[in-house]
User: Fold this.
Amino acid sequence: MSIYLDLTRAFNVGALRAVLSGGPAVVLHRLAVMSKDGDWIARETQDALQHILAVLGARGARYRFGAPLDVRWMAGGWSAHLEFPTPDLRVRTDFVTRPPRLAPDDLASMWRELAEATVPFLDARRLIELKKTNREKDYAVIGELARLLTDARTQVLTSRSARDLARLAREHPEWIDVLRRTRPLLAVASGPAAELEQALDAERRALMHANERRLQAYLDAAAAWRAAWPGVERELAERPLAEAHRHMVERAFGVLPFTVPTEPR
Amino acid sequence: MEPRDEFLSEEDLDLRLLTPAELEAYWTAWLIQAQTTNDLDADVYSHGVFATDGPIPWPAPASARRRSIGSDDSAPGS
Assistant:
């Protein structure tokens, strides 16, 4: 069994606490296997995070550099990173509770929609938003994810293919007109292909730079915590995860800020 | 027939043809094979607010943090 499916089932015993996202979600959408790590959106309650920590603690997990898996930091958009070994794998587990570019009400809807899912993983539309990173390879994934969407409106908003957009413009001119304010490149969707391709490239660059700025804000805010981390890591070594977590929270308090000012969504 | 913009390879997209059990088996085999690059990506983050194309810029030498899982010894830094 896939370690990430196994972990997801363990995280969600008795309640939905963790939704697979990132690379594992791309696998479950049957697009590609590209990532070694497990990524989850976790429920933003201390009970849920404590349950996840207990599952990981039972597997001998330890923290990597990052924020504590604690609602005070998770609510500020931070990410928590842990890893543990199995005989065959180095298993990395990455968590956020507030993934970028998903509005709070959309996130709340996600939890409702996935309440009965056997294997909860992020749908294509929301995964597209998470994949608007500063990495080129993620835009290829967005390109294919957009082709999984079944409604024209969302395809018009997310497609990375000039040919697909040109076809959508012919088939659904009403959506092109309505959505060009939301996605400016739609203004050239019916024009020469080269112009649309250039607009797609420019849009991709703008999204990459926006994510770079967002991440830089977190890196800058974590500077003191990064400086402290070698000592903290030594203090955490050999401690069971529950104890390591409590100690990490104590050490991070006042050093790693709970919130980081970033650009509006 | 008009060409189609291609983003991922046909081999990638062939995952659609696998049964759920085959997909899990393929995924696990891929993860096991990918362990050969663990030393190279020891300090890399692929997700979250620390995700970068390379290691996070540490304020201290990386050799203090390169540590194999299950080992108490620090591996040589890069």
Summary: Residues 193-221 of chain A form the longest helix (29 residues). Chain A touches chain B through 58 residues (CB under 8 Å).
